[in-house]
Amino acid sequence: MNKKIQVIVAEDQAMVLGALAALLETESDIAVCARARNGREALSAVGKHSPDVLVTDIEMPEMTGLTLASEVNSRYPKTRVVILTTFARPGYLRRALDAGAKGYLLKDRPAAELADAVRRVHNGLRVVDPDLAAEAWSADPDPLTERERQILWRAGEGKSSTEIAEDLHLSEGTVRNYLSEAISKLGASNRVEAARIARSKGWL
C-alpha cells in the first residue's frame, strides 16, 4: 500500500481550518498530520512533522502565509507549499511564487480541486489558476522593497511612526523616510492612500 501524502493545514479561522482538514481526510491517499492557527505555529509544525505539503492561508497572525512559504522553502525545501486564499490579486500570486509556493488556489474553487492540487504539487507540479496567472504576469511589478512593505502595512493598520519604529527597532526618522519613499513610488498623497493602493494591487 502506498504511503499517504502527509499534509499540514494552516488557517486562523477555526471553522475553516476544521472544514479543510476534514475535507482532505476524506481522501484515501491524504493524511492531515497537524493543524495550525497561525504562521509561527505552522512553521514549528513543519519542522516537527516534515510533511509533504503545507496548505496555508495568506492572512494569519504571527506570520503571514507568504512569509511562511518563504521560511518553509528556505528551511524545509522538501515540504511543498500550497497557498489557499480569497485574494484573487496578481500581486499576491507573484509574491507567493517568488516565496517558493508551488500552488495558489482560491477558496471559491470547487472543493475537489484542493485534494487534486495537493497530489499534483506532491508530484512536483505547479498548480495555479490559469486566469490569475495570465493576469499576474501582465500586471504592474511590485515597486516596494520588503522594508517599505513592512512599514506601510503597519501604517495601513493605523500605527503611528513611533509605534512602527518600536516594532521594527528603527528610528522614527528612518520610518518616515521609508514611508515617504513608498508614498512617492505609489503616487499617493499620504500613507493611508498608499496602503490602500498597495493592498488593492496585492503588494501588502
TrEMBL record:
GO terms for biological process: phosphorelay signal transduction system; regulation of DNA-templated transcription. InterPro entries: CheY-like_superfamily (IPR011006), Sig_transdc_resp-reg_C-effctor (IPR016032), Sig_transdc_resp-reg_receiver (IPR001789), Tscrpt_reg_LuxR_C (IPR000792), WalR-like (IPR039420). The keyword DNA-binding applies. GO terms for molecular function: DNA binding. SUPFAM superfamilies: C-terminal effector domain of the bipartite response regulators (SSF46894), CheY-like (SSF52172). It comes from the Bacteria. The keyword Phosphoprotein applies. Residues 137-202 form the HTH luxR-type domain. The modification 4-aspartylphosphate is found at residue 57. Keywords: DNA-binding, Phosphoprotein. Residues 6-122 form the Response regulatory domain. This is Response regulator transcription factor. It comes from Alloacidobacterium dinghuense.
